[in-house]
Amino acid sequence: MQILLQLLAFTLLSLSLTRHYSQVMSQAQRLAKSTVLTFRISGYLLLTTAIIYAVYSWGWALGLVYSLATATLVSTFLAVLLTYKPHYLAFVIIPFKPKDLTL
Question: CA 7, CA 43: separation in Å to the nearest integer?
Fold first, then answer.
């Protein structure tokens, strides 16, 4: 559960950057400020939720260590995914996609 929360959170945070968004969309298009703000706030809230979940499950000592360890693994996976297959992350953008664009 925590790994999925972190994966979605880091995905949203990376897609709030124009560079990664244009990689996933395969088009050079700027993001609307409201979309950037939505992606960032959602990403940070999901990261906070993942940390709270880990602390609640394993206590303060192990929860924080486990949370940081899984964050390292998830961010490495996401970096490799954005490098080689960025279009696999298009499922996150579909609800925020403008009407005139196609994936």
Answer: 9
